[in-house]
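Help! Submission page says 'invalid entity' but I think these are all valid:
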Amino acid sequence: MNLSFFDQFTSPYLLGIPLILLSVLFPALLFPTPNNRWVTNRLSTLQLWLLNLITKQLMIPLNKKGHKWALILTSLMILLLTINLLGLLPYTFTPTTQLPMNMALAFPLWLATLLTGLRNQPTTSLGHLLPEGTPTPLIPALIMIETASLLIRPLALGVRLTANLTAGHLLIQLIST
Amino acid sequence: VLHTTRALHTAQQRLAPLPPLPEKGGEVRYGLIPEEFFQFLYPKTGVTGPYMLGTGLLLYFLSKEIYVINHETVAAACILSVIIYGIKKYGSDVAAFADKLNEEKVAKALSVKNEAIKDLETAIEQEKKEQWRVEGCKYLFDSKRNNVAMLLETNYRERLLTVYNEVKKRLDYQVAMQNLKRQKEQDHMIQWVERNVAQSITPQQQKESIAKCILDLKALSKTAQAAV
């Protein structure tokens, strides 16, 4: 089977069975569940150290209430990191190069932030639509522009991840030959 | 789910103490294949068995083109060599780092315990010192008691002296009064006697006395002249 450069971006199938679920869940195998021990083996220690580092970096700017997001943001970050890094190995498939998967990640999270902001602090979240210090005649146009940018955001984020990964992997393949 | 999986828990559920971690992980050859595989094949094929298996499989895949050599093979070879180089060079450092993290964790907890022990020991020593001080308090109290007694004694003596002085002053006053009175009476009497005597000397008596004196003087002068 002669491989072209784009074969790494096709969703893997084995005898008609889609293997995409396996490739998404595989990174979970690399992180063993933390057991009850206080002093763990080297792998768990290193992973815990990395996890702590990432969580600290994410959570330091936030106040106490923002720490609710710690679990989902950290786990999301670790998942994406692992998936993307594993995709650099030969004969691997990177799920995040598929646009549907990135949209599935982007839309719910974006909607969650938007609705949380609108529910808890409606005036502040609507106030974000207008940057500070705009001259008065520009206000209507600017509000429309900001609304459009807000609604486009999930599409932008999803496509951004897809495009970055696809381009990166392709570039690496091109340069390696 | 919790209750259906209960049958799967064969070991005794015990949260602490956990069995200690084994010192070394499972033995692996070439970093990938566990030693048990070689031991498993040893009775049938001897020492070279697994190697023959590996080589045979590889050549089979290559010759029958089940595994095609393509550009990814080169990429795989490069990546593999980089990974192996990285592990060989930095593996021990990473292991030391992980061990250091664990050591720091344990050392932090131990230091808490040790500091608590040290604080308690210093507290014990201070307590013993306090007890020694309490024993010394007896002497302190004795000396204080002596001090107080001396002060009282001194004060008492001072007051006695004051009393004595006051009484003496009053008695002296009385004595002086009596002396003065007697003196005054004496003077008065002497004056009265003198006055009366002076008054009683009439002029007649005065002339008689003066004539007598002259006669006496003449007589005396006669005898006196005779002596010279």
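Support: the input was valid. A stray whitespace character was the problem, and the output above is from the cleaned input. Chain B has a mean pLDDT of 88.
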